[in-house]
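Run log, item B.
One chain of 206 residues. Sequence copied directly from the ordering sheet:
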Amino acid sequence: MSQFFHIHPDNPQARLIRQAVAILQAGGLIAYPTDSSYAFGWLIDDKAAMNRVEHLRQTDRNHNFTVVCRDIADIGMYARIENAQFRMIKAATPGPFTFILPATKELPRRLQNPKRKSIGIRIPDNAIVQSLLAELGEPLMSSTLMLPGDELPLNDAQTIRERLEHHVELVIDGGACPLEPTTMIDLTTDPPQVLRQGRGDASPFL
């Protein structure tokens, strides 16, 4: 049965953040709020947790997972980023964007898009996420918390607990999320392409 933490959305309790990170480091899968919707979160090196997410979401091998970073300095280890891309991302983050970038050799192949060798990158504007990443000291792997048959991501922590209490180790209740997806920008092309219009303003990339 999963644990359930009420974490303040603006002033996250340090004790609960430390406990959440300990759960991740022990191989746990968590459900947590972001600036777009609730999401699954797990450690980058945790293949078993990723397999659990694939099973829960019933995704195929072409599904795009996302690396959630604290700031732009974390991106370089996982994605190749040129100066022009750096400037665009820096101006738009933290915020509700997912950037598609070429993956580096350091990123395990199982996390990359198998056809394009790319990876999604996020720097969310959410105090709980930022606190988790600061305590963890490394980025998280993430996937939108949308289950098969649902038209929208789950947005109520109590509902998430009821539906996933035997499938995740922790549900973080940080209140309702906006329930609008991130704007997805493909930076592997020149000019960039807007793959999905969501909360973020895509006009600076066009």
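Observations after the first pass:
- The chain has a mean pLDDT of 93.
- The helical segments are 14-25, 47-57, 83-92, 127-136, 157-164.
Flagged for discussion on Thursday.
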